[in-house]
Amino acid sequence: MTYIAIKDLSLxxxxxxxxxxxxxxxxxxxxxxxxxxxxxxSGCGKSTLLSTIGALLEPTSGSxxxxxxxxxxxxxxxxxxNVFQEARLLPWRTVGANIAYLSELAGQRPRQSEIxxxxxxxxxxxxxxxxxxxxxxxxxxxxxxxxxxxxDPMVLLMDEPFGALDAxxxxxxxxxxxxIWEETKKTIVFVTHAIDEAAYLSDRxxxxxARPGRIQADYVNPLVRPREPFGRQTHETSxxxxxxxxxxxxxxxxxxxxx
Length: 259
Ligand SMILES: Nc1ncnc2c1ncn2[C@@H]1O[C@H](COP(=O)(O)OP(=O)(O)OP(=O)(O)O)[C@@H](O)[C@H]1O
What we know:
Blueprint lengths: L1 E13 L4 E13 L3 E5 L6 H8 L7 E6 L2 E2 H6 L3 E4 L11 H11 L6 H11 L14 H13 L5 E5 L7 H18 L2 E5 L3 H7 L2 E5 L6 E6 L14 H24 L1
Parallel strand pairs: 3-8, 3-9, 6-7, 7-8
Antiparallel strand pairs: 1-2, 1-4, 4-5, 9-10
The protein binds adenosine-5'-triphosphate.
């Protein structure tokens, strides 16, 4: 059953000096509990699409609904969780206070036991009284994930969340995210540049064309779960990654032709 429904969505940015046609006639259905990755050439509109799903940007035309509600309604209920490449934590607040922050904005003060429970679940239970500058990049991203998860979001939108982490931390975070997803069955839309990351994590991989971004291909991931973590490759993994790589190359080539 369709949960996130994106219908004929286009978006053009208007600046003082120019207009940038970022997305063109996007149709995409995502089911409840699905893990979908968006990949595509740099500047093809992945973050823009994610922002329209999160109601951070208004499309020029078309619509996005989640469980039949407009994304603006869902956003008002604070039921959209965002995780960005930078953790965007408030440096003067402790980890615990950062996790509580968005709930406080919504007029709810989460109980300490609730904060402890989510922090334990995401593996930072021992750091609630620490400040962001005392944490590693991976730990800061865990705090950012807790801050989103404590809202019990209907969807989790993740924009290259591990893009700034070193390779080892990134792989650990991928394993952790899969565990969290399997236990909570949240619907996740995940933007990444990394084919191996998309192939390891997702149920589906949507490949976008060069700008203006369109859906170029939509792959159901053939790799059975549980999958090999830490970059370990099976024949099936490398075959699927080659297919995705070819698709990305086509998108890149199209960009050069259009330029
Ligand atoms: N606020 C804005 N005003 C004008 N143009 C913008 C704005 N934000 C993004 N763009 C342009 O829209 C296009 C899509 O940008 P977007 O960040 O969504 O792409 P992306 O696929 O996420 O890129 P990357 O992979 O490099 O992060 C790009 O050409 C970008 O320069």
